[in-house]
Design a protein that fits this description.
Blueprint (H helix, E strand, L loop, with lengths): L9 E9 L17 E3 L16 E9 L13 E3 L10
Antiparallel strand pairs: 1-2, 1-3, 3-4
């Protein structure tokens, strides 16, 4: 989850991920390669990432002009999927 930016013309967000700090070329997520376009909310679960591997994430908003014109990237966070944890349960 992330905090939305609250602008009236926000059409969605682009979620960037990868395995190196500041490099977002993730491809292993079942939900798509980086960036993943999210509309209608401020959360996503990226399935099929490798347990125990460290991933880095950042988000950028885009407006009604389209995802080819995203705004600035958010601050970066990192997370490591662990076996046996499932957010959907």
């Amino acid at each position: 989850d992330w905090k939305g930016i609250g602008e009236p013309d926000v059409a969605g967000y682009m979620v960037y991920y990868g395995t190196r700090k500041g490099v977002y070329f993730g491809k292993e997520g079942r939900d798509g390669s980086s960036p993943i376009i999210v509309t209608g909310g401020t959360s996503i679960t990226i399935h099929n990432l490798t347990n125990g591997r460290l991933y880095y994430f950042a988000v950028a908003a885009f407006d009604s002009a389209g995802s080819q014109y995203p705004g600035a990237l958010s601050g970066e966070i990192s997370a490591r999927p662990l076996p046996g944890l499932n957010r959907d349960n």
